[in-house]
């Protein structure tokens, strides 16, 4: 087979033999763990790709309406992402830890209570998000956006707002069909009924509801809820503090990183909108797989800790990092080849960071991840990028250099933390979260060791 017809995996075997040597050093059970990770990460990667496709197709259709419509919809989607979706997904990330650990412990009915608690908290979180969204036009006018563009953005946001609760549900496996539905509705409303931007917003909102509805129907059809759902319980109104202690740092982790790229996009757009658009799409698509491995690693690590399998949790963490790193190198060698060499380095480091963040969530260490990301992006990455962009006049390259510095330090910090973390204590903490009884001695030792471990890692920075 010619090089041009090779699959990514075949290309990686010729370009990155180092991974064959690494596999030889891995402990027993690595192959089985890699299989389990692949079973989880595959559907997750496709689901994230489909979710990204909904907004992408809406933007493409609006691009045929005119420049002002395209600008208005692009800004509206950014506003929705920053003030709505990122906050909802961030708060829902507590479920990554609590549900994976609780399910692993075997305390299945508690999973249903956690879901109920999460739904109530996320619905309440929609109200402050809506308060910001209904004032989108005023906010855009304050930052001197074109009045017509601001008005178009407000129209899109208002129509989309009812769909906000629908996008905080878990990732769905019905994304492909929903994207087909989204394209069909966009075409009918924009070009048959001539509804313009309003039609695209309606199509996007309907697609989000369809995602949530399809997932709910699938769960009911397969009976996946039977072992974990005991009906609505008053327990969901209790112990919100334990959820918030994971949800708020988890939200900070996600929003701090997400918002930094939105800020970077705004700054880079000042210099070159065309080049920014190309790099932005490439980054979104190339980062989907490492994020998928990160979520899969979160589930595997959480399940193992909840089940009291400390060594299995450590193996899952190692294989998550290896899988994300290997896939990123496959992309670099197979897609980028000899071009965009600088960007390829960023992809590799950022891929490892995404996988590390997933393992951190699985272990319930969101506070550590939040501290690392906030300091990395807002004390180092963005300031450095801005200086290199405008003072050193390196343009967009300066921004990516700043982001590379941030991603490198973040990756080093998180991997070092995972290497030094007391996994036995993490196992005890997981059992406590899962409602499984542990001895008072173990519980006390865990709290003390956890505080010491966190302080030690902060000192490392």
Would you kindly provide a brief summary of this structure?
It contains 19 helices and no strands.
Can you tell me about this structure?
The chain starts with 7 loop residues before the first helix and ends with a helix. Residues 1-5, 7-15, 166-173 and 448-461 have low confidence and may be disordered. The protein is mainly α and 461 residues long. It has helices at 8-15, 18-24, 30-63, 67-92, 94-105, 108-133, 136-142, 147-160, 175-192, 197-222, 240-271, 273-286, 288-306, 310-336, 341-362, 366-391, 396-420, 423-433, 440-460. The chain is globular, with a radius of gyration of 22 Å. Helix 1 (8-15) packs across helix 14 and helix 13 packs antiparallel against helix 14. It has a domain at 64-238. This is Multidrug and toxin extrusion protein. It comes from Salarias fasciatus. It holds the Pfam family MatE. It is found in: Membrane. The chain crosses the membrane at residues 44-63, 70-94, 114-134, 155-178, 184-206, 331-349, 370-391, 397-418.
